[in-house]
Specification:
The protein is an alpha+beta fold and 468 residues long. It has a single domain, classed as Up-down Bundle (Outer membrane efflux proteins (OEP)). The chain is 64% helix and 7% strand. Strands 1, 2, 3, 4, 5 and 6 form a six-stranded antiparallel sheet that branches. β4 and β5 form a beta hairpin. α4 packs across α6, α6 packs antiparallel against α7 and α9 runs antiparallel to α10. The radius of gyration is 37 Å and the shape is elongated. The two termini are 52 Å apart.
Length: 468
């Protein structure tokens, strides 16, 4: 009986201590119907978005704005887009891994009771052996493992911003395409009116015998071309609206009535006004910084595997009740590295480090090439835009001269309609050149992963709406 009481006194506190630190399970079910309804109800008037955005914007800037520009829509995308949430969840997983890596190994309680079937007279029939194995990690393995987990967690944090940058780039491209499509519709409609007038005048002259059928046919063909281009531009407008909504993480209906603006959309800046800073630009890329952190983690992985050549030890103090005799026991366990000195894992870790280095060098070369190509495209687009603007300017001057001649009776109405149509057509050519320049500028920003207008590459913080 005394032996049983002793064992009960030993076991109960240990059991209570073990249960005290347990984490309770919390269910987190997914309801597809609820999540779909929540997505359909999203809008730019979300109060959570407004509260967060006001902390990121200057005090004088109202939110929600009367007109939404790129910066405002990017804030909405950071709030709504699911890719940012996925990256945040992955980063949370990486940070949780730090706790796993830094955890100390638990001691092991061993209880080995025995009953003697033929004890001597007056001797207890029980033998109880209680011991605790205390594993001890050597050679700084725990510190190396923890530091490696921290590097990977930092890389996951950088990936969150890298993902957010990709979301912003998609918003920029979609917003530009949508606004250019709307402007293109305006210019095509401006060209359509004088084309119709010219066709009517030619048909009237044909009826009077003052024009030929080929002239009327050519005017009809030009008008039909305009109708096709108008339909295509309206389709691009609809697609652009859907693409912009998708880039933000909203249903298209939530963006249909939103007033959008982009100051200087048709006036891309010259190269001299861009903050290229190519000397440090590539090192500022999120993916380059992330790859460097992953290489550091691979380096720590090699160090950890090398450290594992030194075996861990285990100390085992214990208590033995041996048929009435009370004994203290001690044990010491040490693996003998005779057959395996961890050569295989070390070789694997060194190979992974080499692969990480190769990926970094490949990324660096690719980033440099992307920057050079984007800059070359931007220079060419600016030259193309300058030529188009010069032609447009000369056409406007010619049109104004014809307008003055018409007012003085030196030109007829058909000349006026034709020059107005040509002026609108050349304005459309200039617009398309400006669109190509904006796309090239967007590619250049993507290559450097930061805006080139002096605006910070990314916010100081991104919204954290928590986990369900």
């Amino acid at each position: 009986m005394a032996t049983r009481d002793s064992l009960r006194r030993i076991g109960s506190p240990g059991l209570l201590l073990a249960l005290a630190g347990c984490v309770a399970y919390r269910a987190a079910p997914i309801d597809p119907g609820t999540s779909q309804a929540s997505f359909a109800a999203r809008s730019l008037a979300d109060p959570g978005l407004a509260a967060w955005a006001r902390t990121e914007l200057p005090p004088e800037r109202a939110f929600p704005p009367e007109q939404w520009d790129l910066r405002d829509l990017a804030l909405a995308a950071f709030w709504f887009h699911p890719d940012v949430e996925v990256a945040r969840a992955d980063a949370a997983t990486a940070h949780a891994a730090i706790r796993t890596a830094s955890a100390r190994p638990n001691p092991v309680l061993a209880f080995r009771p025995e009953r003697v079937l033929n004890p001597d007279a007056g001797e207890s029939a029980w033998i109880a052996d209680v011991g605790i194995d205390l594993p001890i990690e050597t050679n700084g393995k725990r510190d190396l493992r923890t530091e490696r987990a921290r590097k990977l967690a930092l890389a996951a944090d950088v990936l969150v911003y890298e993902t957010a940058w990709g979301v912003r780039s998609a918003v920029r491209a979609s917003l530009a395409d949508l606004l250019f499509a709307r402007r293109e519709i305006e210019l095509l409609e401006q060209e359509e009116a004088p084309r119709r007038e010219a066709q009517a005048l030619l048909e009237a002259r044909l009826a009077a015998g003052e024009s030929s059928r080929p002239e009327v046919a050519r005017a009809g063909i030009e008008l039909a071309r305009l109708e096709v281009e108008l339909r295509a531009a309206r389709t691009r407008e609809s697609e652009g609206l859907a693409a912009l909504a998708s880039a933000i993480g909203l249903p298209a209906a939530a963006l249909a009535a939103a007033p959008l603006r982009w100051e200087g959309l048709e006036e891309p800046p010259p190269e001299s006004e861009l903050d290229l800073a190519r000397e440090t630009g590539l090192l500022g890329r999120f993916d380059v910084r992330r790859q460097l952190l992953e290489y550091d983690a691979a380096e720590l992985d090699v160090r950890l595997e090398v450290a594992k050549q030194v075996p861990d030890v285990a100390l085992g103090p214990g208590y033995v009740f041996d048929q009435g005799l009370r004994k203290l026991a001690f044990s010491f366990a040490l693996p003998l590295p005779l057959l395996d000195r961890n050569q295989g894992p070390i070789a694997e870790a060194e190979a992974r480090r080499g692969a990480s280095q190769a990926r970094f060098l490949a990324l660096q070369a690719r980033a440099s090439a992307e920057t050079e190509r984007a800059l070359a495209r931007y220079r060419g687009a600016l030259e193309e835009l300058a030529v188009a603007r010069d032609l447009e300017s000369r056409q406007r001057a010619s049109g104004e001269a014809i307008e003055r001649g018409f007012a003085a009776g030196a030109a007829d109405r058909l000349d006026v309609a034709a020059t107005r149509a040509e002026t609108a057509a050349l304005a459309l050519v200039s617009l398309q050149a400006a669109q190509r320049a904006q796309r090239a500028l967007g590619d250049l920003e993507s290559a450097l992963q930061r805006p080139l207008s002096g605006e910070p590459a990314m916010l100081g913080s991104l919204p954290d709406k928590g986990t369900p």
